[in-house]
Specification:
alpha/beta
Length: about 375
């Protein structure tokens, strides 16, 4: 039977980042990933994600963003790949928008934000926009476009971790954690489970505390290609009447990529069909047509992704959608990595370091909001 110090189940952004961090520490690592890189399923597929330094979800995320930023630049240096493309991030919403106010509050802890603060000012700076003049706006210059697939390739190339291309299950035993696959068993001292929506199959006890939702993404042929190009159009999050819509300038020549950040229908981890439909993207189309007409246009491509959302804790006060990054209570050899809820990708380098610490340093404790004991299933 093969053996290793740490097994990593799932080699999307989080699992690959963990394998990279472990390899840099000299750990003996084996990865398990049944899908080919680039396959259109999983939490990390597709070319890009938004990088935000200041996060409306919590002011506490700024330090994590900064750690991740340093990690992305280090990965670029080590791999020779371009991974994080700088871009302003514009957030806009009606007067009093909680989303914009929360981003401003996070930024104020680090010197505030510069640039337009109203819809009228933003419209003058970015010709693709037609925001109501009195809307609240915050623009953070320290944002970017994270090239997700390139990042996974860079992590794997630098880590040189052996990869077993099969789905895996785990069976704890007295001598270690048995990782069972169609290819046979591997015995690991510890295991990091970073299986995205499939984490509920590997660790069924998490099912009561996670909600998987179907999210559709579209690419739109911009009405004004010049106004939708990088440099003329920032990454954007518009808090419109249909919910927050995020999107990217047309930096790939495929069109303006945009999607609704609000949660879609609840699904299972294998429920990827049917393909994304234009009707599902109608709220996104409406938002672009009303507030970013230069970036709006016909839908030219569609995709489906899944959010794995943590529910509100039931063992102590707290909000939902917080990450789960912790050792499993009762068996600390099993490390749970579910930093999802639709906005975890930008932190992957920093979270990979956390996961490596959890695997190799018994004295390391994860941030309190990420702990499993906030749920009654795992509470003491």
């Amino acid at each position: 039977m093969r053996s290793c110090q740490v097994a990593v189940l799932g080699l999307g952004l989080m699992g690959s980042a963990a394998a990279f961090a472990l390899a840099r520490r000299g750990a003996d690592v084996i990865g398990f990933e049944p899908m080919a890189l680039g396959e259109a399923r999983g939490s990390s597929h597709g070319s890009c994600r938004v990088y935000r330094r200041f996060n409306f979800e919590s002011t506490a995320y700024t330090e994590l963003s900064d750690r991740a930023y340093r990690g992305w630049r280090t990965l670029e240096t080590l791999s020779g790949r371009s991974i994080l493309q700088s871009s302003p991030v514009l957030e806009a919403g009606p007067p009093g928008s909680a989303l914009v106010a929360a981003s401003r509050a996070a930024a104020m802890q680090h010197g505030g934000v510069a640039g337009p603060s109203t819809g009228a000012e933003a419209n003058r700076l970015y010709p693709a926009l037609d925001l109501p003049a009195d809307w609240d706006v915050a623009v953070q210059e320290s944002g970017g476009i994270l090239m997700a697939e390139a990042a996974i390739r860079a992590f794997r190339d630098c880590a040189r971790t052996p990869i077993i291309p099969h789905a895996a299950s785990i069976r704890p035993g007295p001598s270690g954690i048995h990782i069972e696959t169609a290819e046979g068993e591997v015995l690991a001292e510890r295991v990091i489970v970073a299986a995205g929506p499939w984490i509920v199959k590997v660790l069924p006890e998490l099912s009561a505390h996670l909600k998987i939702t179907r999210q559709t993404v579209g690419w739109f042929k911009p009405a004004d290609p010049g106004a939708a190009r990088p440099g003329a159009l920032p990454v954007f999050i518009v808090d419109g009447p249909d919910g927050p819509v995020y999107g990217f300038p047309d930096f790939e020549g495929r069109g303006v990529k945009a999607a609704l950040h609000s949660h879609g229908p609840v699904v299972g981890p294998d429920e990827w069909d049917p393909p994304a439909m234009d009707g599902e993207l109608e709220p996104v189309r409406r938002t672009l047509a009303e507030f970013l007409p230069g970036a709006a246009g016909p839908i030219v491509a569609r995709d489906v992704c899944l959010y794995t959302n943590a529910l509100a804790p039931d063992a102590r006060p707290g909000e939902g959608e917080e990450f789960i990054i912790d050792r499993r209570p009762g068996d600390p050899r099993i490390i749970v990595a579910s930093p999802c809820s639709g906005h975890g990708a930008k932190f992957a380098t920093a979270i990979g370091e956390m996961l490596a610490e959890l695997a190799l340093n018994p004295g390391y404790a994860p941030p309190d909001p990420f702990r499993l004991d906030r749920f009654s299933t795992f509470a003491p």
